[in-house]
Specification:
homodimer, 340 residues, alpha/beta, Quinone Oxidoreductase, Chain A, domain 1, Rossmann fold, 2 domains, 7-stranded mixed beta sheet, 12 helices, 19 strands, globular
């Protein structure tokens, strides 16, 4: 089969690789229907995260079960499935409490790299969710979004306690931030303020439910949000970037006693005890337990209630994966879908 | 009148001072019935917090209203009242959401120092809660505890989401930690693990509802808690000290997706983005919005359901305040009550 391998910063190759095999009786092998490039893939691509050896890459996927191990009961060959970046047993106390991203058996589900034709998924029974039947082609982008960016944006909105009567601020206008807007709307938020200075992303933010756009950043952005919220700050803020500046902006936009949901993978963030203590925020976030939300998200997509696949503004054949990285790196695309 | 003034580390004096006066029409003057020394008073007493000039001290009080400003409606001269360390209007959106400690009009309520005979309390209508009538003498210690340590321990337990079915760990065996145990029991926690190596405090912890005692600290303490919780860690952890070591211990004792309530005033704590993110905890804490809990706490005390006044194991005349500081500094007393 062929798969994507990152050799060095900027050096991404689609090359021949060995077919994945069932290693444990709880594994499944999927034939990938669609995959994509994540904002977090750009960290190693840009050399911010070190690459020690050629590394298979990609962790977002939908596909058809090709083969299952002897102990797999919940999915079977031929089914169309959605999974996420963590494999989880979905039976331990941590999973049952909704934190499958920290399952006691937790491991990365895509060590073989999901930007490929085939992939081995561990703990298939706990990790994969089958759709009712083979989906219409038009649903594929949205189901693929559910695999990570929708699930992550949704977790951000839930962690920020978005809901009826709430004013939500979303910091970050990448796919996760945009889908946190959609999630906040679905969760019933009264007002949703998107912080964005890119016109095409502002348009999608409005389509997903943003009621206000704030173009200012940093202290000016915080002042603008305070102005829009009676001087108090927002009840709920989603941080979907992961830099020190965006985190500071998110903290500053949240009212005392409010909820800050952070889903941007942190780079260079430190929070002093004084800030943690004196802001009196509810802080919650981390790698999203996407599995918690998958059945509900698949249902909403299946019923055509939400169209998160709109974040894909570029679709390429998987073999052109290097072009997809370039387009996202240069911010020419919000998110690129890849089809084998 | 006479009041307590900290002149320099270790130099605490009970001396003659000017009587407080109504400065704003929303003020009240109280005649203190009882006050006490807080663990946090020991920071400046020990010279950890700098003292720039002689400073009136104390922020825990119950007393009788002596005089009110022209705009005060909710309390009147002669009433017995309980307040807390922050003055709050109790009408702004932040107060109504239960964060009176961050009221938009918030100010320290005891700038004149509560370890005195008289004190001016700002925003009296929002800050003070009157008891149904003059309390029996036996209730005074518990009502005084409600003013800070009970309210703070209670907030810690609420922030840690203590409740039915939960295993709670309390880090810190000072008055706040001990009362977080009592609060966890009242909130219905199934199991309460006190981390303490002092026999007299362990005994009070058990009396307040602790089901288990862990004497180990640091990594050993964390390992012991994991052992007691099926390898997962506790659902709910209250941090009631404020040092780097106690915070690290509290973080390590909390299971992924669990709740960490921190009420120890932080000294030298930094939390990296990685820890904030990857632990997937719910983090919440800060200066306790005691006012949120006061009506309920006073009711429970009035009905003799709880006896938080048990934390006072030393009672002295207010004039002997220096002895009270020494006893607490040397850990000879858990908490010292002072009576003018």
């Amino acid at each position: 089969m062929h798969g994507t391998v990152l050799h060095a910063p900027g050096d991404i190759r689609f090359e021949e690789r060995e077919d994945p095999k069932i290693l444990k009786p709880t594994d499944a092998i999927l034939r990938i229907t669609a995959t994509c490039v994540c904002g977090s893939d750009l960290w190693p691509y840009r050399g911010v995260n070190q690459i020690k050896q050629p590394t298979p890459i990609g962790h977002e996927y939908v596909g058809v079960v090709e083969q299952v191990g002897a102990d797999v009961r919940n999915v079977k060959p031929g089914q169309f499935v959605v999974g996420s970046f963590f494999a989880s047993d979905n039976t331990c106390e941590i999973c049952l409490a909704g934190y499958q991203s920290r399952c006691i058996q937790c491991e990365l589900s895509c060590q073989g790299g999901a930007q490929s034709e085939l992939i081995r998924i561990p703990l298939a029974d706990g990790t994969l969710v089958a759709t009712p039947e083979a989906p219409d082609a038009e649903l594929i982008p949205s189901l693929l979004a559910a695999s990570d960016v929708l699930g992550t944006g949704w977790f951000g909105a839930v962690a920020a306690d978005a809901g009826p009567g709430k004013t939500v601020v979303v910091v970050g206008d990448g796919a996760v931030g945009l889908l946190a807007i959609l999630a906040s709307r679905e969760l019933g938020a009264e007002r949703i303020i998107a912080m964005s200075r890119h016109e095409s992303r502002q348009a999608l933010a409005r389509e997903f439910g943003a009621t206000d756009i704030v173009v200012e950043r940093g202290d000016e952005g915080i002042a603008r949000v305070k102005e829009l919220t009676g001087g108090y700050g927002a009840h709920s803020v989603v941080e979907a970037v992961g830099t020190e500046a965006s985190m500071a902006q998110a903290i500053g936009c949240t009212r005392p006693g409010g909820h800050l949901g952070f889903v941007g993978v942190p780079h260079g963030i430190e929070v002093s005890g004084g800030v943690l203590f004196n802001t009196e925020l509810h802080w919650h976030g981390g790698p999203a337990p996407v599995r918690r939300f998958l059945p509900d998200l698949i249902d909403r997509i299946w019923r055509r209630e939400i169209n998160p696949g709109r974040v894909f503004d570029l679709t390429l054949p998987l073999a052109k994966v290097a072009d997809a990285y370039r387009a996202m790196d240069e911010r020419r695309a919000i998110k690129a879908m890849l089809v084998p």
